[in-house]
Amino acid sequence: MYSVKQSPFHANKKHFLLSVLLVLSCGYFKGIEALDINIELCIDSDLTKPAVSPEWIWKQVELPRNPLTPSLPPARVPVWGYQCRDVNQLQRKAILHIPGDNPNNAKDRPLVMNLHALGANAFLQQQVVSKLDLTADRPENNFVVLYPEGYAKFGSKRLEPFLNIPNIYAFNAGGCCSYEPIDEIGFFRKLIEYVENEYQTKQEQVYVTGMSNGGFMTNRVACEMSDIIAAAAPVAGVLMEKYDSPRDPPRDHPLGWGVDPFVCNPENPVPLLHIHSTKDEIVPFLGSENGEENQELQGLATLITGDASVSPSDLGFPSANTSTDKWRNFNNLDIKEVGEKISRKDSTCTLYSKPKSGSEDDFAKVELCVHQSTEFFGHCWPGKVDKDDLSVLPDEVQNLVNLLPEQLLPILNIGLCGNDDVNNQYIWDFFKGYTRDREDPVLLRDEL
């Protein structure tokens, strides 16, 4: 089941400033001709069964028993809508972005899976945070973007009953950031299978990226889906297979995370680009064990746990270097290699590409890009909106942007770090050089 939403935008010039503010604050960044397809699937716990579309169902749901009247039977209310019929199925959602005005345009195009942060959703990752559609819609790029949505609410067992905010989710990335052992890998496999069957995207070019919780999840996807993922690019998120308490004696994670630990043992090397800001105060570049002086992280930890004794180190986030060092080992690289330093305007990237002895035919590159966000908040998506990005927007929107007062131009970069060079185009340029043969996944072709 899906619905199609086309993106032409028409503005009333009489109210151009209000229109611009609404357009930009909502992250309405789409190409002149582009489709968003809202996908809903019922994923069975038995992954040998195919994913199916929800059905229009009317049923009665039993409400929790009223503690004030325990002798009375619980109330039942009617509920209707598109739902999964089988109790063993989870209803999962995603947004599929296709450049052009026809679903057939997805045929033989590369597919990039883009995963949202903790407490966000597919729409926010698409329109407000990453704005990857702008890069996908450029004629010279022309790739399809898939935005899956998490399932567990918010990711904090303590806060969920009080917040009860709809449409904010988490992914189960192992040690982060869900207190429910949801099978995300099974969902992603079924979702990609569905997209490939329905829209014939290119099987050899499936990539994954994501930020924060989505970055943690990107690492897990690379670990457990190396048979189909050609390359990965985690942003502000590290590999965290399980939760290791820094306390003696050990404690459970203060947010209840880490209920589904896993061991990263990819069947095949996966090219990996890790992007991180040195100003990140949520997932610190040096890891949460070095975040004791981080007042922002300390305040966040106290807020969401309700325990002032919880310190940043209790969150258990490894450092970016620890994470990439693991990937250098997984990808059969020489761990002693210093790496090639590539200095850019406000970023430094280190490329590791030397295979260890005996692995010359079975290795993959790892690149770590470190930048200093120009924004006050370092936990952000790399890059900024530029004129090349705006060129794919409808003429009406471009005209409105040109009329935007200079002091309001920063609204273009909501959710972005504001740095140069290492951005969406950089991620895509990294991805597009790699293809993986589904018949023989060991055959990873590096065409760079």
Distance between the termini: 38 Å
Strand residue content: 15-25%
What is the domain tally? 1
Cross-sheet strand order for the largest sheet: 1-2-5-7-6-10-11-12-15-14-13
Backbone CA Rg? 22 Å
Q: What is the count of helical runs? A: 11
| Number of DSSP strand runs | 17
What's the SSE pattern?
EHEEEEEHHEEHEHEHEEHHEEEHHHEE
CATH class identity? Alpha Beta
Low-confidence stretches: 1-27
The CATH homology group name: Alpha/Beta hydrolase fold, catalytic domain
Sheet with the most strands?
11 strands, mixed
CATH hierarchy: architecture: 3-Layer(aba) Sandwich
Question: Which secondary-structure class do the elements indicate?
Answer: alpha/beta
Measured as a percent range, the helix fraction is 10-25%
Describe this entry's structure for a reader.
This protein is of the alpha/beta class and 448 residues long. It has a single domain (102-446), classed as Alpha/Beta hydrolase fold, catalytic domain (Rossmann fold, 3-Layer(aba) Sandwich), CATH 3.40.50.1820. The protein has 11 helices and 17 strands. The chain has helices at residues 16-25, 122-130, 132-136, 160-163, 184-199, 213-224, 295-305, 320-330, 387-390, 395-402, 424-432; strands at residues 2-6, 34-44, 55-62, 76-83, 89-99, 111-115, 144-148, 152-153, 169-170, 206-211, 231-235, 272-277, 340-343, 347-352, 366-371, 434-436, 444-446. The strands form 4 sheets. An 11-stranded mixed beta sheet has the order 1-2-5-7-6-10-11-12-15-14-13, with helices on both faces. Strand 16 (434-436) and strand 17 (444-446) form a beta hairpin. The longest helix has 16 residues, at 184-199. The two termini are 38 Å apart.
